[in-house]
Specification:
Elements: E1 14-15, H1 19-24, H2 28-39, E2 44-48, E3 65-66, H3 68-79, E4 87-92, H4 108-118, E5 126-129, H5 132-135, E6 142-145, H6 155-168
Parallel strand pairs: 2-4, 5-6
Antiparallel strand pairs: 1-3
Length: about 170
């Protein structure tokens, strides 16, 4: 979500007073692509490392901060409310906050749960992320790297991904 849906980063939780600034950083290309994919009937989801468990960290609460799926929903309600229903699952998970699940690094857990929810094999899924390490996986999902974190997802990123896939015959 950070540096992908929005050019901004929420860190360990965004102060609610900074929400408008975060929303203003929303990628217009994200909005355009989310709308086009929704119109075409594609399933969409949010896979963020911004974990709701962060609300329990010292100095944070749902009253003072917004993060994870709550933040994604707030951005979409402001920028593309017509497609929010296409995002039937939003997962916020950071393995560092779950010692019993510390091997679930990157976005592996997110993608597995999304795959199970939509009943779609992971090799038919694409993760859009600004972190190369989040795109690394053993499960077969494809990774589209956001090139410019100061912009968030862009049509240039999509074009680069398509060229890469065409050159590998995927």
């Amino acid at each position: 979500m950070d540096h992908t849906i929005s050019s901004k980063h929420c860190g360990p939780g965004l102060l609610r007073s900074d929400l408008d600034n975060y929303i203003q950083g929303c990628s217009q290309d994200f909005v355009s692509y989310a709308c086009a994919l929704a119109k075409a009937g594609f399933h969409q989801a949010v896979a963020t490392g911004s974990d709701p468990k962060e609300y329990t960290l010292p100095g944070q609460s749902k009253e003072s901060h917004i993060l994870g799926p709550d933040l994604a929903r707030a951005v979409m309600e402001a920028k593309c409310p017509d497609v929010i229903d296409c995002f039937q699952i939003m997962i916020g998970f950071d393995c560092r906050l779950h010692p019993d699940l510390e091997l679930e690094k990157g976005k592996r857990r997110h993608m597995r749960l999304i795959s199970e929810f939509y009943n779609v094999p992971q090799n038919k899924m694409i993760l859009i992320d600004d972190s190369k390490s989040s795109l690394e996986n053993e499960s077969g999902y494809h990774g589209l790297l956001v090139q410019n974190r100061d912009v968030g997802f862009s049509k240039h990123d999509a074009s680069s991904y398509i060229k890469k896939m065409e050159s590998t015959g995927t």
